[in-house]
Specification:
The protein has 168 residues and is of the alpha+beta class. The chain is built from 4 helices and 8 strands.
């Protein structure tokens, strides 16, 4: 009788140990970086607006935007510093006054602020823009990637992405 009880207790302890191991492995997997590739970042280089192929890495406490070709970190945003984020489906990135003027005031001289909306692309694209107090990023994402990128951004940063205009 006593041996049977010890055997059952041993099986139960082994089951608990295995369960804890599985939980720990899953928790570690969740803490790993989540990476999105095939995204383009719009930025100003001199007087030109350029599109750079990038990957976005969501880490534990910050998000990094890295150049696809070199792997160099182009921008880093701590989640706690992100003020707001917006999504638009349009020919050009659309911004509400707060994000657009704040972002434009950081980098773009007045002459380029007028030039940006005039003709980035002929087709509508999916744009995600985010801003901190001192920096911003404008990302062009594909339709299918947008559907998983935005929820992931919101989960990691705890910042709700506000949709502007038409959403598709």
């Amino acid at each position: 009788m006593r041996t049977l009880l010890l055997k059952k207790l041993s099986v139960a302890l082994i089951a608990i140990l295995l369960f804890n191991c599985v939980v720990m492995v899953n928790a570690q997997a969740m803490l790993r970086d989540e990476v999105f590739e095939r995204i383009e970042m719009i930025s100003q280089v001199g007087e030109k607006i350029v599109e750079t192929d990038v990957s976005v890495h969501f880490g534990n406490d910050s998000m990094e935007i890295k150049a696809s070709k070199t792997g160099a970190v182009l921008k880093t945003f701590k989640y706690t510093e992100i003020k707001n984020a917006e999504y638009s489906y349009s020919k050009n990135p659309r911004w509400k006054t707060g994000l657009g003027l704040g972002a434009a005031a950081i980098v773009f001289p007045p002459i380029l602020l007028v030039a940006i909306p005039l003709g980035f692309t002929k087709h509508r694209r999916h744009w995600v823009a985010m801003r901190t107090e001192k920096d911003y990023a404008v990302l062009k994402v594909s339709k299918s990637l947008r559907k998983i990128f935005i929820p992931s951004f919101e989960t990691h940063s705890s910042v709700k992405v506000e949709a502007l205009g038409e959403s598709k």
